[in-house]
Amino acid sequence: MQDRTSIINEINQLKKEKNAVILAHNYQRKEIQDIADFLGDSLGLSQEAVNQDADVIVFCGVDFMAESAAILSPEKTVLLPEKEAECPMAAMVDVDSLRQKKKEHPNAAVVCYVNTSAAVKAECDICCTSSNAVNIINSLKENDIIFVPDKNLAKYVSLNSTKNIIPWEGYCPTHHQILVGDILLMKEEHPNAEIIAHPECKEDVLDISDKVLSTTGMTNYAKSTNSKEMIIATETGILYRLKKENPDKIFYSGSEYAVCPNMKMTTLEGVLDSLKNMKHVISVPEEIRIKAMKSLERMLEVGRT
């Protein structure tokens, strides 16, 4: 069995040989974050893939993230090291069920969180992220909005918009592990700490939070704030990055149970095997890719206006 140093050395060698770049989500294992060329959220990493002069994209994340990279960079080979790394929330909405919902609300616009499959994106009018969801919703002319798949993000949007939000009954199981009682106990122990929550958390957690931010919002805020202590209500993997980038500040997990098992499937050995054997290649059928691309492009266009 190879030791960690030799695995990393071989990964770096294969990256050069194959003109590859490694992208890792903020929730990945710390050793995966350490070997990544870029860290970030799902959409930001996919956009980074577009900008890179690379032939191969190794996406250390879950299935829909690699699909997004394949949608935006069809000329590149996108690899997902662990093929079983699926997003359970994305799996809570399927094309047939969404089409039925659209029939029930024929005048509604359909907005999908980026945490959805390419096939679902292809059925939607526009995508959104956790950071721009409110702006995207408010930019639409329609009053009725079908929002898939995260009911918690839908609720957060509804509290910040006059639109009629029709939520899907999906959710992130990991963020559902974050309980308001645990946050309050942590606050008692650390009364000077700010509470920073991801909008995938339940409403009662958001209600007691000082800031509601995406993972990119969290990393940016941690650098800019004068606060020295923060309670972070999202998947625990981001704490490694926060501590690494802000050694003068203290970060506490909102819940020790907020661990996404699918995000943690990716290992150094898996990345090495992926590069060595070019697996697992993620591709999107062209008809679906073009339609899904439109929903992503429309979102990006709103961001430019």
UniProtKB/TrEMBL annotation:
UniProt key word Heme: no
Record's keyword terms, sorted: 4Fe-4S, Cytoplasm, Iron, Iron-sulfur, Metal-binding, Pyridine nucleotide biosynthesis, Transferase
Domain of life of the organism encoding this protein: Archaea
Pathway: Cofactor biosynthesis; NAD(+) biosynthesis; quinolinate from iminoaspartate: step 1/1
Alphabetical list of Gene3D superfamilies matching this protein: NadA-like (3.40.50.10800)
Swiss-Prot/TrEMBL cofactor(s): [4Fe-4S] cluster
Positions that bind iminosuccinate: 25, 42, 113-115, 130, 198-200, 215
Biological process per Gene Ontology, one example term: 'de novo' NAD+ biosynthetic process from L-aspartate
Catalytic activities: iminosuccinate + dihydroxyacetone phosphate = quinolinate + phosphate + 2 H2O + H(+)
Cellular component annotations (GO), alphabetically ordered: cytoplasm
Residue runs in coiled coils: none
Entries under InterPro entries matching the protein: NadA, NadA_sf, Quinolinate_synth_type2
Annotated cofactor note: Binds 1 [4Fe-4S] cluster per subunit.
Enzyme Commission identifier(s): 2.5.1.72
Summary of the function given for this chain in its UniProt record: Catalyzes the condensation of iminoaspartate with dihydroxyacetone phosphate to form quinolinate.
Family assignment from sequence similarity: Belongs to the quinolinate synthase family. Type 2 subfamily.
Name recorded for this polypeptide: Quinolinate synthase
Organism from which the protein derives: Methanosalsum natronophilum
